[in-house]
Design a protein that fits this description.
7-stranded mixed β-sheet; 4 helices
Length: 149
């Protein structure tokens, strides 16, 4: 009987943990007007955002993590316990790019900050912002993205 109860608890616990993690497609209209698709894990809770991409050893091409905030705020990141070099893109509420940090240094304690308040931050593999022409003229429709999940 104990084993059955334990297995039911484990099943329900695993489902609730999974329910908090979202995997979605994010479309970025790059600097030359071309749509680029990214497969992103959405970090919405404080716990997910605190963990971010720490302790991961790889990240597939055209995938990343989107930190989505409940309200606009000044955002600050660091690379402590992050082993993958990243491009970090700060996104304004209107979908414009606030700031881009390219090829961040793994395990660095240097603060990486937005310029003012942002609604989201996208972390992708280092070099992909250049490769996919993602820059300050790019656009991400956050309203459409948020409504999709």
């Amino acid at each position: 009987m104990f084993i059955k109860v334990f297995l039911i608890f484990l099943f329900l616990y695993n489902n609730s943990v999974f329910a908090e993690s979202y995997i979605e497609n994010l479309e970025i209209i790059n600097d030359i007007g071309k749509p680029i698709q990214y497969h992103v894990e959405v970090a919405k809770t404080d716990e997910e955002q605190a963990m971010g991409l720490m302790n991961r050893l790889d990240l597939k091409n055209n995938s990343g993590m989107l930190f989505l905030f409940d309200n606009e705020k000044k955002a600050s990141f660091w690379m402590k316990n992050t082993f993958i070099p990243l491009d970090i893109i700060f996104i304004n509420k209107n979908g414009s790019i606030n700031r881009i940090y390219k090829n961040t240094k793994p395990k660095s304690l240097k603060r990486i900050k937005s310029k003012g308040e942002v609604l989201a931050v996208l972390e992708i593999n280092a070099g992909e912002a250049n490769k996919n022409n993602i820059g300050y003229r790019s656009f991400i429709n956050l309203e459409e993205f948020i409504s999709s999940f």
